[in-house]
Amino acid sequence: MLPLIGRRLGMMILIMLVSSFILYLLFEFDKDRVVIQAIGPYTSEEQRQAWLEQNGYNEPFLERYIAWVGRAATGDFGTSIQFNRPVLEVLLPSLLNTAILALWVFSLTVLISLMLGVLSGIAEGSAMDRSISFLSVLTTSVPEFASATFLLAIFVFWLDWLPGTSSGPGSLFRKELILPVAVLVIFNFGYYTRMMRASMAEVMNSQYVRTAVLKGMPFQRVVMKHALRNALIAPFTVMVLQINYLLSGVIVTEVIFAYDGFGRRLYEAAQFNDIFIVEACTMIAVALAVTTQFISEIGYMFLNPRIRLT
Amino acid sequence: MTDQALPLPVRKSSLAKLAGAVGLLRESHIGMFGLTLVLFWLVLAIIAPALPLIHPLKQYSSHLLAWPLTEGPDGAYFWLGTDDLGRDLLSRLIWGARRVFIWAGLATLSAYSAGMLMGVAAGYLGGRWDDVLSFIGNLVMSFPLIVLYLIIIGRFGATPLNIIVAVTLATGPQVMRIVRGIVLDLKTRDYIAAAQVRGEHPLYIMLVELLPNARGPLIVDACLRMGYVTITIALLGYLGLGLPPPDPDWGSMINAAQKFGSFGANAMLWPAIAVSTLVLGLNMLADGLREISLRD
Lengths: 310, 296
What we know:
The complex is a heterodimer. By secondary structure, chain A is mostly helical. Helices cover 77% and strands 0% of the residues of chain A. In chain A, α12 (262-272) runs antiparallel to α13 (275-303). The N and C termini of chain A lie close together (8 Å). The model of chain A has no long low-confidence stretch (mean pLDDT 86). Chain B is 70% helix and 1% strand. In chain B, a hairpin with a 5-residue loop joins β1 (70-71) and β2. Chain B is globular and about 80 Å long. The mean pLDDT of chain B is 86. The chains are: A mainly alpha, B mainly alpha. At the A-B interface, α1, α6, α7, α11 and α12 of A face α4, α5, α9, α10 and α11 of B.
């Protein structure tokens, strides 16, 4: 078990290193491009040379990269071009906002899909199962920007119940969160539900569940005590892995609703060519992705005794 | 006359096979519904030039953001209304469908070709090939997709080629993963061993023996994948990273109309409905195909 964890950790670090190298190559190999983006196109040659010298861009590429990785590992991603403040200082509040949004979305999605998945998985082929399946296909077919359009039309323009944009200070409970959370939950719960359904259906067909039913155990007790726990193993890994996918949707939704989060920062930085923010955001996203991958694999091993013991 | 030779099995033409597949699909309501939705948009996209539509770029400045069923000047009739520049929505929707099919189709095709080659190589050749290709796949999949698009298109610009490259890069590894899994399973079959004993070249085995036999699950997956790519293409348009204007594009139509708040409600709803129904059609078609393939 330990060597396996070690190997996964090594893989994690390797992926982070390779992606950071590609990122640096992509954005900072051409130092003339960097300086124009950092201090603007209407600067003199001397100003540019001075800036390059001052920021260590005259070193060979590999040395620059190693120095950059060292600084990035300690959280120093340079100074944002847009805001003229340290990148991390700009990003921290928006990361917190995104965490609030993601927390709501993840917990609601998991809750809804667990209930729907169990309901349809315990009675495969029933009317309930078919309606839930249809609902899942329907909602996963509507991309975030389209469902946002529908919700905007109904709840903002027509009923005038909710605000249409979500900028403003972050807090766990505010009206501005409802639409972004709804959009993301609607798009994501279908996939989770299908996972949960498939896993539940498989467990319900297994022999030990049949034995439990045949020996006269109340059905509810069979589902809650015996089936559910085993049915949760496979979806657990998928749900954790999906955090990466969820982050994609979060970024899009933040842009749609002008929510002051990490994704909107990244999107605006990409539009503005604020390469230091783009680099920082990308590395944070990749770090999050490899960490969730790691957690899902280790979690799977802990949850599934058949793997744990070998 | 008694010992008549058994008739050789008739090799069905591909057209007959297709007809057989459609016949099978008729048993799945979901699949038929999906097929209808996809065909609806596909047919509209194909016959768009022949339809009596107002030119999609023609601007009626007297009728900005008009509601559906309004009458315009010189006999123009806006069935679905107009957008913020007074262009006919119906016409832009149908021409936009053409654009979606062309670009999403090309991007899916490109992603599929790359992913299938990588997957069959990783699965069949194994060893170092598998290590390297799987690492590339893991690497790409460590980026949230939208970040990948923002980086590539933000860095190199929103040209049609870059968009296809970005979609291929993001989708190819996912296809690879599926193909690799199928190939690992097929690899142990007897006909592969037979081909190896015959001394066939590994390329021949991969392309002629393995890939055609993996097609079942891949067709289902391709439908789903085409749905995702459609979403991506429209999303990039929405985010202003898509194909350059002024040609109609569903994503950028939604974005343009949203800027006008409740006045743009009509203009933003139609493209949102369009993209949702097309993706729904593709997903339901995939569901139907999967249902049928599981049956036999």
